[in-house]
Amino acid sequence: MANGGFDCVVGNPPYFNVQTLGAKSEVVKEIQEKYPHIWQDKSDILFYFIAKAIEITKSKVGFIISNAFLHSAKAVKLRNYILENAPISKIVNFEKYMVFEDASITSTIIEFDKNKNDSECLAYNFKEKNYDVDEINHIISDTKNYFEV
């Protein structure tokens, strides 16, 4: 699947650190071998879901993930991989709004596009804690609400 096998990949990968699997875990060993260009100690499992999705798609990837990867030092290799292989076309960051009631982290909806040739990225940042679902849907669906990055 060098050129990807799917038109798009959409996902919500699990949010946990690979260390919870144990250093001697077969899964951890496989991740280290398959993704040395992204591997970093204490990285999140979602890093490898993103890399795999980029590998298997022909064009677009859309994920809702922890927004920690946007600024975390442990995600530098992943961010570089994304820039080189499937630039970000759209990002919606829920800086303080909790998308999932029972999750203890804030989320980001992110779209990558392997066929994107420019560096333009549309972004929106929900800075407040209180939004209703209709308001979020309206904001996200209207590109006039985004800013370019």
Key structural traits:
alpha/beta, 149 residues, 4 helices, single chain, six-stranded mixed sheet, Rossmann fold
Estimated share of beta-strand residues: 15-25%
Cα distance spanning the termini: 31 Å
By CATH, the superfamily comes out as: Vaccinia Virus protein VP39
Radius of gyration: 16 Å
Order of helices and strands: EHHEHEEEHE
Mean pLDDT across every amino acid position: 85
- Determine the number of helices (DSSP H or I, runs of at least 4 residues): 4
Morphology call: globular
Structure commentary:
By secondary structure, the chain is α/β, with parallel strands linked by helices. The chain has one domain (6-148): Vaccinia Virus protein VP39 (Rossmann fold, 3-Layer(aba) Sandwich). 26% of the residues lie in helices and 25% in strands. The protein has 4 helices and 6 strands. The protein has helices at 26-34, 46-56, 76-85, 133-141, and strands spanning 6-11, 57-66, 88-94, 107-113, 122-126, 147-148. It has a 6-stranded mixed sheet. The chain is globular and about 45 Å long. It starts with 5 loop residues before the first strand and ends with a strand. 20% of the residues are buried. The model has no long low-confidence stretch (mean pLDDT 85).
Provide a short characterization of the protein structure:
The chain is 26% helix and 25% strand. It has four helices and six strands.
Describe how the helices and strands are arranged:
Elements: E1 6-11, H1 26-34, H2 46-56, E2 57-66, H3 76-85, E3 88-94, E4 107-113, E5 122-126, H4 133-141, E6 147-148
Parallel strand pairs: 1-2, 3-5
Antiparallel strand pairs: 2-4, 3-4, 5-6
